[in-house]
Amino acid sequence: MIMKMFRQFGITGQVRKMNKNTPFKRFKDVFLYIVMTIFLIFLTSSFVIEDVYSAADQLTMTEKGISDVYSIAVGMEPEMLTINNGEAESEDKTTEIKTDDGTTIVITEYTLGDKNEEILEYQQILYSLGFLISQPSSELTEEVQTAIKTYQAMKGLEQTGKLDRSTIISLVAEDVKFEKGDSGKVLQTYQQILVAQKYLAAESATGTFDDATETAVKAFQKANGLTETGKIDAKTIKALDALR
């Protein structure tokens, strides 16, 4: 292919006749030959690098994952690589993420039938956002799977029904809280818990966050060693859910 391109530009014939040309003509032909060679090498390398990072994006995005894919792209045998449907997975389905301050966060993925206390925390977020109707538990059931798919669809994520890496990161980033002026069925559920714990009068559990609810929330937060914000934030939600 390279020689074909050289012939197209008339380079080969010109090189053969270099001894008949002037020194300037010889220099121009050699220079053009070198430029074309460098261009073709660069073009080929660009495709390899693009394929490497495209494939690496489907793996764990760790240095090991990228180096393994690069080894395959250039025809070398990687030391160890496990691929499942285009994704690299460890047996415990965990990946690590390093934050800007150097902290390493381990994310464990969960699928239908798995049980873990982390699943309970993710369900609490789904429940607070209104995607889950039943009480949160530590098991990933079919109902939870449906709630996850609905959440994933709303967020533009792949609808796997699993608590995968992208879904977990999205859930953790949710700023779930209720404050004065908010209203809704989920809020009313938390008001009812405050009523049961005698922090709020029964007639105030209307589903609207009013002054009485704010006062009750502050009292609950103080009694449970939480910051008295008067808002039903993530930590307050967790404490209230524990009383269900």
TrEMBL record:
Q: Name one Pfam family in it.
A: PG_binding_1
| Highest taxon in the source lineage | Bacteria
Q: Name one GO biological process term.
A: collagen catabolic process
InterPro entries with a match to the protein in the record:
Peptidoglycan-bd-like (IPR002477), PGBD-like_sf (IPR036365), PGBDSf (IPR036366)
Which ranges carry the Peptidoglycan binding-like domain?
116-168, 187-240
- Keywords assigned: Hydrolase, Membrane, Metalloprotease, Protease, Transmembrane, Transmembrane helix
User: Per the record's keyword annotation, is Chaperone included, yes or no?
Assistant: no
**Which residues span the membrane?**
30-49
Q: Which GO terms describe its molecular function?
A: metalloendopeptidase activity
Q: What is this protein called?
A: Peptidoglycan binding-like domain-containing protein
Organism source for this protein?
Acetobacterium wieringae
High-level lineage: Bacteria, Bacillati, Bacillota, Clostridia, Eubacteriales
